[in-house]
Design a protein that fits this description.
Two copies of one chain form a homodimer. Chain A has 340 residues and is α+β, with helices and mostly antiparallel strands. Chain A has twelve helices and ten strands. The longest helix of chain A has 22 residues, at 318-339. Chain A binds a DNA duplex (30 and 30 nucleotides) through helix 3. Chains A, B: Negative regulator of class I heat shock genes (grpE-dnaK-dnaJ and groELS operons). Prevents heat-shock induction of these operons. Chains A, B: One of its GO terms (biological process) is negative regulation of DNA-templated transcription. Chains A, B: Belongs to the HrcA family.
DNA sequence: TTTAGCACTCGGAAGAGGTGAGTGCTAACA
DNA sequence: TGTTAGCACTCACCTCTTCCGAGTGCTAAA
């Protein structure tokens, strides 16, 4: 167990290193109000903390730097989420005070706020669209060969897909067909659509007109939804301002990963409640070994639909960031609740 | 006027510098097959070329490096667009050989091809949506207060906007209303919609039901289209591989500009036919002073709708890039032509 | 247990010297 | 008159050394 002096010293070191990115020395710590001891005593304590794995040295005669274990201990035991500053409050209230009607808008602005206020990169994982329920289907012919199917879901999300149609289809037939489809498919989850089409609707359509065999085939392909959850990224260039990422190669691997989307999306997809943190090697990706990721989920009603995350160096302002993310996920959840 | 030997030397220098990013010396040039003279002669010519402003030295005893004027002369007079390589051909044909139905898909893949094959950053400016003509309008109520308006245009583009509705509206009334709107607004350009609504439709709606005063107001706001043309960017991280952009600050200003979108969009918006090039300071933005931008337009029918561009260092493989962009803009134009 | 003192370590800045790729200039040559 | 060989010169870059200072660990005294 750590003594209270060790706790204090560890906290001072991490707090200071987060601010300056410079190794912290014993003399400097001794001058802090919160610590009374002399540099020599502090050196002894630091040596102990290093032995326990909470601190590291960059070279044999340098000051101390937090290890990943140190950060982990810090966020688990020493973290006191800070109050939001006036500036932060006004920015959040200014945005969520406005009436927003579109999901994308809320998410995009949230990502913007998060990256603006932190100088880190914000990543928001959107909802899995395929869980949405169909509210209305519309098919609009574009020319002789193609038509566009538009699906509006219960959450106000709009999907569209262009597909080929058999030449023979008549406008009036099409209308009939769309009516049947709407009648039978309303309320069905998008991912279920192709199946439902098979079971119920096919026979029904067949009764009402010819040539539906072909049409059916094409329509079905149009209704298959294989789009992954969308990723909203804010402040991509913020990473370039962090001193630990002055190295172009490091930055490139991180940015490639963000651009790739797939791995990041997988990483963020959790169902856990509250704030989650991954510090350095706690995530499996080489590119993110010097990064920390803080995530929180947001909800639509009681259902968790997406994740809001912040990507920064392991030397992250955890206390500020945690407060911010908590506040934002609350605001998002609240906004969505008002809609439904 | 330049002698043919000077032309040859200039070409060798630029070709080589584009490949290696290293200053080119006289001894090296003299060993090239295409040049017969001795290093001393070449030095004399190089001194002349420098005096004329086509070459520069990085320091007093370094080899020569092309100046922006040099590049400009090169692309104007020495450029022989290269044949596409087998690799390039298969990648393009592989993509455009598939049947693609959606505009976004074509543009996104084109951007992908361009950045993959070049290691530069590709930027494609989408069409101005507001010029599209309305094909079908649909309004779907989401809850008591909001509805989503979906607009399908003649190009298969789908726009949607959530808007507030007055509480009193009945489903059957809504259907009537949508029918009237579709009847009156089909074929109208999106940007014209709000006006048309004023002139013709308002009175018509009024005759058919009460409460349209309010509904009208909200609907109108939903039909205002202020979205700028969309930007499709591919290979954002490619810039980080160019040796001239090892400097994090340079990269940051370039990436911020791309992320910003507004200035880039303005820069790309041209009506000129054929390939356009901006070399270094020929563009007005500080961040892009060491970049070149090659653009070509693509067409929908005879109408120019968007621009396809490649952003790289001034030391760009102009001959390859020009051939590629030409080929791609042709393929895009052709694909779109088949649709309409 | 704490602290003062001291020798020690190491990164980083500054300077010196050497190397090599490249130049410009001059004078001889075809 | 244009071309070329020869040569002195320049400058980036590398390496080696030196010096400095911030910081350490250890020891012995308080």
């Amino acid at each position: 167990m750590l003594t209270s002096r060790q706790l204090q010293i560890l906290k001072v070191i991490i707090d200071d290193f987060i601010l300056t990115a410079q190794p912290v020395g014993s003399r400097y710590i001794s001058k802090k109000e919160s610590v009374e001891s002399s540099p020599a005593t502090i050196r002894n304590e630091m040596a102990d903390l290093e032995e326990m794995g909470f601190l590291e040295k960059t070279h044999s005669s340098s000051g101390r730097v937090p290890s990943e274990k140190g950060y982990r201990f810090y966020v688990d035991h020493l973290l006191s989420p800070s109050q939001l500053s006036k500036n932060e409050k006004t920015e959040i209230e200014g945005t969520f005070g406005q009436r927003m009607l579109e999901f994308e808008q809320v998410v995009e602005r949230s990502a913007g706020i998060l990256s603006n206020l932190t100088n880190y990169t914000s990543i928001i994982l959107g909802p899995e669209v395929f869980e949405n329920k169909l509210k209305q289907l519309q098919i609009t012919p574009l020319n002789k060969e193609t038509a566009v199917a538009v699906l509006v879901t219960n959450t106000g999300h709009v999907e569209h897909r262009v597909f080929t149609i058999p030449v023979e289809i008549e406008p009036s037939d099409l209308e009939k067909m769309v009516n049947i489809l709407n009648d039978r498919l309303k309320g069905v989850a998008l991912i279920e659509l192709p199946n439902r089409l098979n079971e119920e609707v096919f026979s029904l359509l067949r009764e009402h007109a010819e040539h539906y065999n072909d049409a059916f085939h094409y329509l079905r392909s149009a209704l298959v939804d294989d789009k992954p959850a969308k990723l909203y990224v804010g402040g991509k260039t913020n990473m370039l301002m962090q001193p630990e990422f002055r190295d172009v190669d490091k930055i490139r691997s991180i940015m490639s990963m963000i651009e790739e989307e797939r791995d990041i999306a997988k990483l963020l997809k959790t169902n856990d409640q509250g704030i989650q943190m991954m510090i350095g090697h706690e995530n499996p990706f080489d590119a993110l070994q010097h990064c920390s990721i803080i995530t929180a989920n947001y909800y639509l009603g009681n259902q968790q639909v997406g994740t809001i995350a912040l990507l920064g160096p392991t030397r992250m302002e955890y206390n500020r960031v945690v407060a911010l993310i908590e506040e934002l996920s609350k605001n998002m959840t609240k906004t969505f609740k008002e809609w439904y």
